[in-house]
Description:
Two copies of one chain form a homodimer. Chain A is an alpha/beta fold. Chain A is 49% helix and 14% strand. Chain A has helices spanning 13-28, 51-58, 80-84, 99-106, 133-141, 154-158, 172-182, 195-217, 222-243, 255-267, 269-279, 284-292, 298-312, 320-329, 337-343; strands at residues 6-9, 37-40, 45-46, 49-50, 74-77, 89-92, 115-118, 123-126, 129-132, 145-149, 163-168, 187-192. The longest helix of chain A has 23 residues, at 195-217.
Amino acid sequence: MAPKTVSIVGSGNWGSAIAKIVGNNVQQRNDVFSTIINMYMYEEMVDGKKLTEIVNMQHENIKYLPGVKLPENVIAVPDILEATTNADILIFVLPHQFVQKICEQLKGKIKSSAIAVSLIKGFAINEKGIQLISHQISEILSIPCCVLSGANLAGEVANEQFCETTIGSKNEDTGELLRQLFETPYFRCAVVQDTDTVEVCGALKNVVAIGAGIVDGMGSGDNTKAAVQRLGLMEMIKFAEIFFPGSKTSTFFESCGIADLVATCHGGRNRLLGENVVKSDKTIHELEKEILKGQSFQGPLVAKEIYGMLKDKDMLSRFPLFVAIHLICDRKMDTKEFISCLRNHPEHM
Amino acid sequence: MAPKTVSIVGSGNWGSAIAKIVGNNVQQRNDVFSTIINMYMYEEMVDGKKLTEIVNMQHENIKYLPGVKLPENVIAVPDILEATTNADILIFVLPHQFVQKICEQLKGKIKSSAIAVSLIKGFAINEKGIQLISHQISEILSIPCCVLSGANLAGEVANEQFCETTIGSKNEDTGELLRQLFETPYFRCAVVQDTDTVEVCGALKNVVAIGAGIVDGMGSGDNTKAAVQRLGLMEMIKFAEIFFPGSKTSTFFESCGIADLVATCHGGRNRLLGENVVKSDKTIHELEKEILKGQSFQGPLVAKEIYGMLKDKDMLSRFPLFVAIHLICDRKMDTKEFISCLRNHPEHM
């Protein structure tokens, strides 16, 4: 078999961290993978220079993952078609709101035998309601799309701190190929077939993490925060059961499930957002500008999307935690009411 | 039905926090419960005065739960028989190494119709191997014994911060009676019948928490710590499956399961111990004296007990996390080897 060519679509902090891993892995496994990796990078100017040129000269994404050297075989490419034209494996790792536009540009221009793997957190919204990003990619590009999600805060992965992750692939051989692409001694990959649940966890945990941040901001202790995480997990499980039938409980025990939830509720940016929502009167948009300097919080977007869908389906009362988090982010509910929401949760009835 | 008389056996920080809850509840539900509660307290001298007298004068356990007022209907009693002679419900909340001696003193001296509820974390060791504390209590006293366990760091419960807990009761009516005794708006009780798993979780989470503290002490981030919690949970589930057949996966989703694990791995004293094991060369005993001033860490005791049992049964390789934590506490394994143990965990094979 000819070596597979890998392209990375996206180059934020998580994209850059994953570029470091796969850039090194393809060099070590050059019987399986081509050693040059194109990384699509949305062009922007940093200190008067093009970011792609900085990355290709300095081998460092000085804007989104400063201080971490990228392998020299990872080439930043500002043209999405040039970056992906030869790809056998497309790694999608960009904010979920850009997926549709990028995929429409790629439609008909990539290899028909290619496979995709989505590292994206979030849902797409279309006329049918909520759609998984992997399904959206697969539908637009007419190729299979696997997923990778786990307790993987980007900065820690980039610093090679030990962690686990979960690959969702319905096809076992593809799952094994992706394990070879992503696994390192500090980044352990488990492969499961229940891809939808892997992806659902990755989107919903950011909503729960805002809730964890809210109780942090209120000065609550570890017990209350544990209750938020547990009740959030119960809503995640119920959401998967209702909207993605066939979801397996065992998947929630993988890294994509409880582990990612716990890591995100303690170290992630959405937790930080929740804390700031309590401690200030600023809007989410203002907090984004202040805290993330150009990137966006995924949690409030997902919370808004599922709120709309649950409202349409008359299911708001079954997901009170998700609902309260959306309303608090939208400044339509006082943060003080959050504890009442926990207290009166249907899990207690 | 005559109101039930409640006695509390034990008066450390958790015993005192629970005395506050049940002391208030029996006053509000005086059709169901007698309003006077005896709390057995091991007598000791504090600043030249008897601790029981201080508690009964000041209504505060100044040694183990300072700053928290206890209801005046909770009476500290230094004589174990006097404290329990009329009890219909015996709440056991004392370090697990004292249970056997106390129960043998009570044998034949309590009401034969009484029921017990154990809030104790840990296992008993006898000639048959490991025994649950609730089984030990039940066997010695010939009465049924329920359990209560959850994400309930004592100080936070005493300060009325919202949390959840799990009551394990094979008998539904007893479960409901206990819910009435313990539930408050800030302390939500769920009742399950799978009592053994509730108790197993309460014992084993302290072992996992030492592991979480070890990676904290090594300066690892949230990803690694999440992996410790997940792998620890997988060993907890396997332990329950092997040694307590009939254990239900759903119980691990209750407060006694993941929630307590997460709270303990972030806020508990066993986590603190793990951190100090890495940062110093002191023995567990020295750290106990230094950090707990007279109380004991439950985690190392449980880790030692299960290590002995697993070794006898030739099962050490199936529980590498538990084993490593015991060996590190015993200073027989270097803390640096802990990450290799995570990396090579059978869950990854």
